[in-house]
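Journal club prep — side note

Before the paper discussion, L.F. wants everyone to see what a predicted structure for a comparable chain looks like in token form. Sequence:
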Amino acid sequence: MRTEAVISLKLPSRRKLKSLIDALSPELRKTAGSRATANLRCRGNLLLLRVEAQNTIMLRSTLNAYLHWMNSATTVIELLGDSS
């Protein structure tokens, strides 16, 4: 059974959105095989993450990985923004 999820994250600026996409793009290039795929899109200041997976277990693990990377990247982006 194929499953999917879409996560949206609102960022305070287009610049921070681009920084986050740049940080996540290497992960998008490598795939977890045919069991899961992920893609990112922008809509205004929203980052949309769409994950499709072969089953709910793979969906959950892929989402957890991307959410962890997004959290780490946004933390670094915020820290760097405060120091400039």
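L.F.'s comment for the group: The domain at 3-83 is CATH 3.30.310.50 (TATA-Binding Protein). Keep this in mind when we get to the figures.
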